[in-house]
Amino acid sequence: MDEFDPFTAPPRVPTANRPLLGLTILVVEDSRFACEAMRLLCLRSGARIRRADCLRSARRHLQVYRPSVLVADLGLPDGSGVDLIAELAHATPRVPVILGTSGDDHAEDAALAAGADGFLAKPVTSLATFQQAVLSRLPADQRPNGPRAVRDEVIEPDKMAFHDDMAHVADVLNDMAGDKVLDYLAQFVGGVARSAQDATLANAAESLAASRRRGGPVATDMARIAGLVQERLEQKRAI
């Protein structure tokens, strides 16, 4: 190839300001709000983002291309992100960087045990934390050369994405059946609430999760979550 060919696209080389330029990050995340945060982090860092909202969609992506980085939420509607991490950690060729993410304080051990290279605790809003999690685990030849000024920037996802998540919870509450759905709902609501810094909703989700662990009744917890979700949807309509 003639390096002076004017029709040849220049290589996407990482820079100090955009250290993830040239990378493709596959984010496996069912929360629109959390995924919007990841989109902004990738945009600020120069990375290209691809999104899958469940394991099935993620596997379809992986049949077509191999991302530079995988960020997998551990609680997904059709299974656990731990299973996907384990599959990719032992695949050949391996995805260079595999990161787990969750709003569950106890999820990091499960992600690392499955083969993840690192873990991002929700909410993921710090640009410096996100970039360091990726860069510190990339092969040396894919990192930007020279010193890099760390931008201590905090991103703020669009609140409309949070309301989309609340609408999703309302749909699940209307159609739910089975214990697995209860567990998924507790995880999903808890993760979204922590990402949005909604302490009241996060406490309600934790109460549901605790009731599930004890094997106790959940009607009161479910009614509380349904009421809180409805309040947040009403706030959207009032805007």
Automatic annotation (TrEMBL):
Gene3D superfamilies: 3.40.50.2300
Every Response regulatory domain range: 24-137
Superkingdom of source: Bacteria
UniProt cross-references to InterPro entries, sorted A to Z: Bact_response_regulator (IPR050595), CheY-like_superfamily (IPR011006), Sig_transdc_resp-reg_receiver (IPR001789)
Modified residues (4-aspartylphosphate): 73
Pfam annotation, one family: Response_reg
SUPFAM superfamilies xref list: CheY-like (SSF52172)
Protein's UniProt keywords contain Phosphoprotein: yes
UniProt keyword annotations, A-Z: Phosphoprotein
Protein name: Response regulator
Species in which this protein is naturally found: Sedimentitalea todarodis
